[in-house]
Specification:
The chain has 97 residues and is α+β, with helices and mostly antiparallel strands. It is built from 3 helices and 4 strands.
Length: 97
């Protein structure tokens, strides 16, 4: 069983809101590995929209992705890319660099 970790900054203006959480959850469900998203000491199962919303991660917040399983590295890379891309909300985001 492999493990992978990566920190990433929330760049979209609305942060980890309902639509963004749904996209992240859907992507996490495509992988066999268990993925956890952490923010300010709280952990969320990446497959759970409600868990993700409870993180209250706003624009500019750094979250930590941690995955454990056979495709852990791929899961972390894919989810980090989704977050770094502002969840595909380019028309609605003021991306921070």
């Amino acid at each position: 069983m492999t493990e992978a970790r990566q920190s990433v900054t929330i760049v979209n203006r609305k942060g980890l809101h309902a639509r963004a959480s749904a996209k992240l959850s859907k992507l996490a469900n495509e992988f066999e590995s268990r993925v956890v998203v952490s923010h300010e000491g709280q952990e969320a199962d990446a497959r759970s929209i409600m868990d993700l919303l409870m993180l209250v991660a706003a624009q500019g917040c750094e979250v930590e992705l941690a995955a454990k399983g056979p495709d852990a590295a791929e899961a972390v890379t894919a989810i980090a890319s989704l977050i770094a891309d502002g969840f595909g909300e380019s028309g609605e985001s003021d991306v921070l660099y």
